[in-house]
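Example record for the data management plan.
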Amino acid sequence: MDRKLLLIILDGVPHRNFRRLFGNLEGWVASGDACVWKHRAVLPSISASCYASIHTGVTPQEHGCTGNGNVFRLSHDDVFSQVRKAGGTTGAVAHSFWSEFFNRSPFDYVRDIEYDEPESKTINHGRFHSMTGYGHDNQMTPSDVDLFATLTNLCGRFDLDYGMLHTCTLDSMGHRFFHESAEMDKACFVMDEMLAPFIPRWRAMGYEVIVTADHGQDERGHHGGRHPLQQETALYYFGDADGPAEDDVIDQLQLAPTILSRLGAPLAETMKAEAFLR
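Corresponding structural encoding:
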């Protein structure tokens, strides 16, 4: 493959919380080591629909996932499958929905919680969590530093060409405490601090890195609709490519073709959006 790339998805972070509370990410933008753009989610701006669109490059109206209660094995080609067609190795550390969308459905707790399948046509190395029992009083989310370390472990052991990490911590905190709260300020600070040591480590391992979210959240911790707080997030890029003007808005459907273009993998015929990195 031409390059290696990691996609880090911090679930449920509105644009304004990224830009005002993630001091490490913003420090790298200020130093010229990263670029940042506004990133607009598909509609509905609900988690599962966005996951499916990020990796297939098509809208929920086309891939058919209308929300978190409608998760199934997608029929469209996706980033994982296209990387595999190019001979690359893929890995994912994520919520179980990702395994169901891109590998097998329904999710089997024993079979699918951890797998290494070199011949898989999609995800070769999967480490998943289900958050079973999730609710207001118990988030059921793993520690983010453990997730970042797990992805780094997979990169080192299996020389991933493409790796994806997804964490629900901030989305869960937003639903619980809403975004205009001391608890949310601290949660964003902690996430930024946990993530920061891994970015230079991943760069030293030869990876370009994209950090973004699937969607935002409004003042009441809600998302799914088209309000800017619900639909707009930020996207940070660490790498050598040229991007658009800093005031351009990245459409979520551009992520899949951009990732594949950077890796040198073929785009699926259904991926019509234009890559935003050159």
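Summary line stored alongside the record: The radius of gyration is 17 Å.
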